[in-house]
C-alpha cells in the first residue's frame, strides 16, 4: 500500500503517510496519486505547487488563508527538515469552528497533511534549512489573501519555539474575530 490516511481530531484534516521503498541507494516514494487520494475523500484538483525554504530553526509562516471565492485546500509536505504544522478551522457552521490541530511533519518519515479549504494554515520550522512543498486547489490571489496573528490568544496555539522568526507581514496580521467567520460551512 502506497499511502496510509489517518483522520485527526478535526476529521476533515488528514495525516497521510507515504510508503517508502528502500534499497542500498536510498528510497523512493509516491507523494501523490489521485486515485488513492480520491478513495479517501481527497478528490480536489490541485492547480498550483509551492516551495518554501526557511534558513533558520524557529521560522514561523502564517496563519494564512485565502477567502472565498479563491479559498485553497493544501496538501503539505516537509521535503527537508521538520515543521510543526497547524490547521485552524475558520468555517463558521462547522462543529470544529475555532479549533486547531497540529502535527510534526518530518522529511525522514514521509508524512503529509491535507488541509481543506476553510482553514488557516501555519508552520514553524523545527530544524534549520527546512524545505516545505505544498499543492493547492486554487491559484494564489492577492486580493483574497488574509490571515490571523500566530499568537492569537483566542486560538492559543502552543508553538514549540517561543520566540519565532517572523516576516513583517505576519507580525501585522489581525487578531481572530470569532463573530465574523471568513467561511460558511
Can you describe what's shown?
The chain is built from 2 helices and 13 strands. The strands form 3 sheets. A 6-stranded antiparallel beta sheet has the order 1-2-10-7-12-5, with no helix packed on it. Strands 9-8-11-6-13 form a 5-stranded antiparallel beta sheet, with no helix packed on it. It has 185 residues and is mainly beta. The chain has a single domain (3-150, 164-171), classed as Jelly Rolls. The model has no long low-confidence stretch (mean pLDDT 96).
Largest sheet: 6 strands, antiparallel
Number of strands: 13
Q: Indicate the CATH topology.
A: Jelly Rolls
How do the strands of the widest beta sheet line up side by side?
A: 1-2-10-7-12-5
Q: How many structural units, i.e. domains?
A: 1
CATH superfamily: Jelly Rolls
**Helix count, per DSSP?**
2
At CATH level 2, the architecture is Sandwich
Mean pLDDT: 96
- What percentage of amino acids are in beta strands? 35-45%
Shape: globular
Order of helices and strands: EEEEHEEEEEEEEEH
Pairing-aware structural class of the strands and helices? mainly beta
Classify the oligomer: single chain
Question: Could you give a short description of this structure?
Answer:
The chain has 185 residues and is mainly beta. 5% of the residues lie in helices and 40% in strands.
Comma- or semicolon-separated keywords:
2 helices; 6-stranded antiparallel sheet; mainly beta; single chain; Jelly Rolls; globular; 5-stranded antiparallel sheet; 185 residues
Amino acid at each position: 500500500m502506497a499511502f496510509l490516511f489517518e483522520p485527526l481530531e478535526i476529521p476533515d484534516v488528514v495525516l497521510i503517510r507515504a510508503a517508502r521503498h528502500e534499497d542500498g541507494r536510498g528510497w523512493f516514494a509516491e507523494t501523490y496519486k489521485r486515485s488513492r487520494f480520491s478513495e479517501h475523500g481527497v478528490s480536489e484538483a490541485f492547480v498550483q505547487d509551492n516551495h518554501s525554504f526557511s534558513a533558520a530553526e524557529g521560522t514561523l509562516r502564517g496563519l494564512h488563508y485565502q477567502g472565498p471565492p479563491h479559498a485553497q485546500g493544501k496538501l503539505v509536505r516537509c521535503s527537508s527538515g521538520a515543521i510543526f504544522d497547524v490547521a485552524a478551522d475558520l468555517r463558521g457552521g462547522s462543529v470544529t469552528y475555532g479549533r486547531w490541530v497540529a502535527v510534526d511533519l518530518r522529511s525522514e518519515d514521509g508524512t503529509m497533511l491535507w488541509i481543506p479549504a476553510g482553514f488557516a494554515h501555519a508552520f514553524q520550522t523545527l530544524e534549520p534549512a527546512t524545505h516545505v512543498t505544498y499543492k493547492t486547489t486554487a491559484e494564489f490571489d492577492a486580493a483574497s489573501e488574509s490571515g490571523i496573528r500566530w499568537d492569537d490568544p483566542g486560538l492559543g496555539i502552543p508553538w514549540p519555539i517561543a520566540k519565532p522568526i517572523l516576516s513583517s507581514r505576519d507580525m501585522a496580521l489581525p487578531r481572530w474575530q470569532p463573530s465574523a467567520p471568513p467561511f460558511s460551512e
